[in-house]
Specification:
Length: 562
């Protein structure tokens, strides 16, 4: 925004730093609005101005700056390919411009450097500019961290999720298994194990899940269509790319258009014109992401976007949750019963009971309370489901965080109830290593006669690291989301198609894996030209890649290679 308002001096600094091949971070425009006022204190630039919505910017040519000062480098850029159409250059002698009214002159740049406490940027290497930028950014980060620590220093004043409703949940036992009929396989839903790997130490298996709307081959990837749609891809394209099971989010569909609207359309399959299996969640994951951030929140593998203020999760009680709609501000109550009723209206093939999702950094006491609450909610959900099965299967959700004893208790209780399958949910650890160790422990505990699902994890590395444990299906929005931002999967690793080196690369996106009939150069062009078609083609490529990856894993299991 600052560049477009004619802030030529800032634009030049932007151009200099943008030429450096560093990772982006999400605050470019916000930084521009502050740099002039901060400049009097000697601060300048920063990696914050390298914005890309959390993605990676193109690694634009840096050769013109190597071994040169800023003043020597800026005039060499005119014939190079750069990341921003708004890049402005100094050209010629003092006072001369390159024909753009916003072009910065050397004289203006010298005036600007005097504002920066005498630091002459025209003689400073770009690395030094970035160093000053890093100091500035680190100062801001440290100040923010101190504010957060101060806010939550007094634990009595910091609200945990359990305190939102004014009631602390006790370790109340869930309903006994004797209150339910024993599990019986369903005619409309069954799991068939085709092959178990004979490789020593492996529990990998190939199977088929039979549903009213088709077969799901396992292990399988499940893309996420949050609002009953895969972004930029229709159902025919998705099916042709190999998708069998698709994930839709009950929370978003309750908020808009409403479960009643979908029911009146004949259910999700009719509403979205899809004749293949669909799984819906309870809405709990999204609801608990609405809570304000607390001292319990921190980095973890399956992260949720948490608010630092103004969260719209209003209360959590034994009865259920209450939250404010992001669409129209209305108050919505989500209970185990109402979540199941909504999923009955949606008519998906597989449904999920309501559960609580505590973050990774919780106390053992808090985690135990959460597991007990989830068990009570899941039992209530199951009772509601059994009143009207509606040709739908229900998966239990195993909880316990990274506490193995709690995970074992959760498996023992939930497997004693007549659920049709089991999903591993909650926090799966702070990184991929901890997740793999956890799943290696949990998966052998699950009943072998029913399918299982890993919730919210489906990147290629995680799948390849855990499929040997006997995991059947994985869901994630990650592959299609990063595709829309220019990151594409290939057999040689990910590529960032926006980079200038792909401008004349007329080969296939993945030479070893046929996905879409378009070249890297064409996708590079579409992305740089901001053509909407790029979103479709890139998403289709990653979707095809994931489904071919799963087919290859199934083949290796059949050959006892995994």
């Amino acid at each position: 925004a600052g560049v477009r308002r004619g802030m030529g001096l800032i634009s030049l600094l932007h151009s200099l730093i943008l030429a450096h091949p560093v990772r982006s971070s999400p605050s470019r425009s916000r930084f521009f609005s502050k740099v002039v006022s901060q400049s009097k204190r000697g601060f300048v630039g920063g990696r914050q101005l390298l914005s890309g919505g959390g993605g990676r910017l193109s690694r634009v040519p840096y050769r013109c700056f190597q071994g040169k000062s800023a003043s020597e480098g800026v005039s060499d850029r005119a014939n190079d390919s750069f990341d921003s159409e708004d890049d402005l250059f100094v050209k010629g002698k003092d006072g001369e411009s390159a024909g753009n009214e916003n072009t910065v002159t050397v004289r203006q740049m010298r005036d600007f450097t005097r504002m920066l406490g005498g630091k002459d940027l025209l003689k400073a290497p770009v690395e030094d500019i970035l160093g000053m930028a890093d100091d500035y950014i680190q100062t801001k980060r440290d100040a923010r961290q101190r504010r957060i620590e101060k806010k939550f220093a007094n634990k009595n004043s910091a609200k945990s999720i359990h305190e939102l409703g004014g009631t602390t949940h006790k370790l109340k036992e869930p309903p006994a298994a004797s209150e339910f009929e024993p599990y019986q396989p369903k005619d409309f839903f069954r799991f068939e194990v085709i092959h178990k790997s004979r490789k020593p130490g492996s529990r990998a298996r190939v199977g088929r899940i039979h549903t009213p709307h088709g077969i799901i081959d396992t292990p399988g990837f499940v893309p996420v269509g949050t609002n009953a749609a895969l972004k930029a891809i229709d159902n025919n394209q998705s099916r042709n790319a190999g998708t069998q099971l698709m994930f839709c989010n009950t929370y978003h569909l309750i908020v808009h258009p409403g479960a009643e609207t979908v029911r009146d359309a004949g259910g999700l399959h009719n509403f979205m014109n899809r004749n293949s299996p669909i799984i819906t969640d309870s809405g709990g994951f999204q609801v608990f992401s609405l809570a304000d951030a607390t001292e319990e929140d921190g980095s973890e593998l399956k992260s949720r976007r948490k608010r630092t203020s103004g969260g719209s999760l209003l209360s959590i009680t034994e009865k259920g949750t209450k939250f404010k709609s992001y669409f129209n501000g209305s108050i919505i109550n989500l209970t185990p019963e109402s979540s199941v009723q909504a999923q009955k209206m949606l008519g998906s093939d597989i449904i999920i009971p309501l559960d609580e999702l505590p973050p990774y950094h919780v106390t053992p006491e808090r985690l135990r309370e959460s597991v007990y609450l989830s068990h009570r909610w899941e039992a209530r959900s199951l009772k509601e489901h059994l009143k009207n099965i509606n040709n739908q299967a229900m998966y239990a959700v195993i909880h316990g965080g990274v506490d193995r004893e709690l995970r074992k208790q959760s498996v023992e209780y939930l497997s004693s109830l007549p659920f049709d399958g089991f999903a591993v949910g909650g926090s799966l650890g702070k990184d991929r290593k901890e997740m793999a160790e956890l799943l290696e422990y949990v998966m052998p505990l699950l009943p072998e006669d029913r399918p299982n699902h890993v919730l919210g994890i489906a990147d290629t590395e995680s799948i390849e690291a855990t499929v040997a444990f006997g995991c059947d299906t994985f869901d994630s929005a990650y592959p299609t989301r990063i595709a829309r931002h220019g990151t594409l999967f290939t057999s040689q690793g990910v590529i960032h198609i926006k980079l200038a080196k792909y401008k004349n690369d007329h080969g296939p996106v993945d030479p070893e894996n046929e996905t879409i009939p378009y070249s890297r150069a064409y996708l590079h062009h579409l992305l740089r030209a901001r053509e909407p078609l790029f979103l479709t083609l890139a998403s289709l490529h990653n979707l095809s890649y994931m489904n071919k990856l799963m087919a290859n894993l199934r083949k290796k299991i059949l050959n006892d290679e995994i």
